[in-house]
Predict the structure.
Amino acid sequence: MPWPSHLKLEPNVPFDPLDIGKIERAIGVRLPAQFLAFLEETKGGGYVEDLLAECAEPTPFGKSNIVEVGGLKGIIRLLDSDITPRNMICIGHGQTTCISVAGIDHGCVYALDTEMRYFWTKETLEKYPKLDPSIKNFFRMRENDELPERPWGYENCYLIAESFDKYLNKLHPA
């Protein structure tokens, strides 16, 4: 799938195709085919002009804000993250974005809540009286035990799309 040109991707570092091999050797599996094709087509990904993606489920942060997609050096740097589930790698920044590289959700793209907002207390929430209504609704649902059940290990992951191509199609200017 060609990179949507209206999203204005700007390369962030010189592309070294050997970095793809470094990542795959480090994680022990091949990257999902759609993400790999994107990296090859865009010469490693890059920065974008403030994009948003709606998650497929309620989140404690609203829409996912994206400022970088790909960025091989950043992917390599974050391979040992202790926040990212072991079957995922970080592929984007703004709201940290991950892609599953193994398991039944292989290729799915998630927004990662690195601040662990799910666990915010009522006292913390009171410090932010102007939160977006979708965020307020998330915490209301949490308090009433109405949130969808989350798989173990995915407590801070929120599904954006079931494939990388679908993720690209969900991105839109802020």
The longest strand covers residues 45-53.
